[in-house]
Amino acid sequence: MKLKISTFKEPKHTAVVTCVCWNNTEDVFSCSDDHKLLKWNLINNECMIVATFAEDFFPTSMNLFPKTGQSGVKHQHDVILISTADGKFHIVNHNGRIEKSVVAHQGACLTAQWSPDGAGLLTGGEDGFVKIWSRNGLLRSSVVQSDVPCFNAKWSPDSGAILYTKGNCLVIKHLNSNSKVKKWKAHEGLILCVAWNPNYNLIISGGEDGYAKIWDTFGQQVSISVKHDQPLTSVTWSPTGNMFVLGSYNLIRLCDLNGRSYCLDRPSTGSIYSIAWSSDGTQLAAACANCHVLFAHIIEREYTWRSYACKQITRKMITIKNIITDQSDQLDYPDRVIQIALGFNHLVIATVKQCFIHKLTSWNTPVTFDLKEGSISMILLAERCICVVERAGVSVYSYMGRLLASPRIPRPETIGQATISLGPDTLAVIDHTDRKLIQVFDLPTGLIVRSSTDNTVTKLTHKMTVSCIALSQTGPLNERQLALLDYNRDLYVVTVKETKPKMFKLGPQVLGITWSSETELLVGLRANSVVAWCCPRAATQPDWLTLTTVSKDISDLGRNPSIMNIEDGVVCVRRGNGSLLRISLASFPEKLLKHIAANMWDDALQLCRTVEDETLWACLAVLAWQYNQLPVAEEAFALIHQYHQVNYIQHLRSLNLARQEQIQERCNRYRLTWSVDDLPNNQLEHILVDDDRKLLYCYVPKVACTNWKRLLMTLGGKWNGTDVLAIPGHIAHSPGMFRNLSSVPKEERDEMLENYNKMIIVRNPFERLLSAYRNKLEIDTPTATYFRNRLGRRIIKAFRDNPSNESLELGDDVTFREFALFLTTKTEELADMVNNEHWQPITNLCHPCLIKYTLVGKYETLLDDALLALHTINATDKVQFPRLSHTSGTSEKLSKYFAQLELPLISKLYKLYKYDFRIFDYHLDNIVGFDLG
């Protein structure tokens, strides 16, 4: 894409041209320091003097009344607003007569602009004031009063806020709300020019520092240009908001939405003080310091679709080529080409007066129809229809050129590519008056003319402002899906024709989206990856959605990449530097979706069996279930379960290996490694032996050891039945129920330690300690009576001042503090109970630094670790670890109980269990707020 630049041979102005604006697509107004207002006609290359103003009339800006197409303001069309250096603004009619002059500022009035809705105007001046006036020039308010000149000010697209410059800062002030004023430093030097994108709600600024920067409305920088040699004196967005142009000294640059440069020209113009776009977005006019008005036309626009390539080579000529067959042709048109669209086996060309619809199979015999107005901003294509967006309105045509619908959409000139989407039978538009609202219009499927009042409209409301929408291109109307991005960059999908449409979130941080034209494959672009949602309908089930999503990381996308299209599972992405990247992402899923769309379920099933991919099986399962293909769904879900379990087991195995390595590393650090042979046999009695499953299990009281013993009893045939929880706890703990390692001869023991799987389950030491206290001393349990009689009475006698006779007799009210004192105070009277297994450190019971455990589980992830253990010993088909309906809630009570202890006492307890804390990676943050280790 490039600019074809032209100027008249001799300048028609005799002084610096300061401002230009377009009257229509062929007429331009210009105003200069020679006090003249000129009108240029680009068709016959004529220039006429509209008016000659007084000698003290030095214009600074010019703005034509907005042509919104609203009937109530037609009389205002062709009314020009001009600000001048004497502090005034002037309302001038199209004949050049000044209808009204108003003294607005002390010093120069540097900028003046009509509001987008035509209800008023704003001015900014050298005196630092920004003022809002009525359409007839009556002062409404002085919204800004500053001590520095305001070089530029702009309305927001909805006329609800203003953007103005203050030195090197940009400021956004909302007019009709209590929103806080947003101000940020944007440049190192003065900001000379700004523009507000009406379609994407972006701001661009140019300054003395030579940089152009793009911002969002929160003041976050989106893009920055290269440094230019001279200050930037003008900048403006195209009407559709997908391009902008910069002007500087002997320089004009055309860029895309993200700041990538299309072309750079260096005409000998001096500084370019003002640039204006034509309403169709294909032409430019620029006010130059050398007394010329520069005109530019966009040419060499390129479009591709499958094997076809189209390129505009002149104002009225394009080339079309089939790359595969090498067939090509040049197509000439009677008028200037405004817009081009290529896709769905058609080439659509819009000129100033007509629209030409070419079939790609016979492009020399187009269908034509006349346009309402020669200012088309956009053409959208779908499988069965065309949407033409003009300033006068939005129209939908068939490929035979028949008008199908004219949906009533206010202010169509504000519609951008991201805010409108066309499907084969549906049109969706973001409401510019409330960007949380999306209007979805039904389109006729036959060749029937529809009026603007009989379109069925569905209104969808999102919880946040919507920035981008896209309709799916396949399937029946009642299954039409709409994908949307909000300003948080969250992606949602909704089926628009449901009775109560519900939005489902697909993912966060998505920069751009597009649907496949042949299937319901949705592709999104993130900062460093491309994601394909192969079955967006699976969003109703998060697990299904995860299984049907494909992602590929890409490290060199650059800043502000954009997604172009997807074809046969290959995604085309434009990098931040402008180059194209094609990524094979979802070839097989797209082929599967094509089979399903054609009702070829046997072919879809055969494809999944051949490729053997989990994503394919997941897509097949979800869609087969939704289309009531139950035999296919049954097979698919069965295979998904196998894939999912294998992958999940692999994930658990990697976590388990990391725990083993962590234990060994910390044992080495604390020099706790020696030989098992150094241990007396009685210290190995906690390690149970299961020869059938070649398993050594070190049971730790208060760490689910009862259930593990029950499970081993069931596996070993020591209990009739499969209900693990039916086994009484006292039977599971009965002496002699299990063989332990202390009873095994040394030679056999060494062989077991070498070849058997060795399992341990650990727990936060203080949580385990609290569980033991509550179970044995505080609450009524079958074993509490024994511990209260044997230990409780003795603790109360030793650590309580003036105990009651009842407490000494029953021992049933031992406090947690007294229990902590018992553990940390070495007394001969209680030595026999201090090392009880229920509160003895795990490192003393199971010796993890001497025995290299191959299965290290944690109480916090008990079910997952149990799944891995049972899978390792090949027992998943025989028994399952029991899932409890409720937990004891010990972890939630930690803070409450430990709040009874002073910090020195907690520190003493920590020293008792310090190796359990350190080796098994536990901390005290949730108890004391910091770690004592």
UniProtKB/TrEMBL annotation:
Segments forming domain IFT80/172/WDR35 TPR: 616-659
Keywords: Cell projection, Cilium, WD repeat
WD repeats, residue ranges: 102-134, 184-216
Keyword Cytoplasm: no
Listed Pfam families: Beta-prop_IFT80_2nd, Sulfotransfer_2, TPR_IFT80_172, WD40
Domain IFT80 second beta-propeller: 300-585
One GO-annotated biological process of the protein: cilium assembly
SMART domains: WD40
Gene Ontology cellular component list: cilium; intraciliary transport particle B; membrane
Coiled coil stretches, renumbered: none
InterPro entries given in the database record: Beta-prop_IFT80_2nd (IPR056456), Sulfotransferase (IPR005331), TPR_IFT80_172_dom (IPR056157), WD40/YVTN_repeat-like_dom_sf (IPR015943), WD40_repeat_dom_sf (IPR036322), WD40_rpt (IPR001680)
Subcellular location: Cell projection, Cilium
GO molecular function, one term: sulfotransferase activity
Protein name per the record: Carbohydrate sulfotransferase
Organism: Pieris macdunnoughi
